[in-house]
Write a structure and sequence with these properties.
0% helix; little secondary structure
Length: 26
């Protein structure tokens, strides 16, 4: 599940899509 703070890719694609690319599963 790729969520805003669950997977590596945030749900929103655009402004702020590369904020924290790897938080839940590292």
């Amino acid at each position: 599940r790729a969520g805003p703070r669950a997977g590596g890719r945030p749900a929103v694609g655009g402004p702020g899509s590369h904020r924290q690319p790897r938080r839940g599963r590292v």
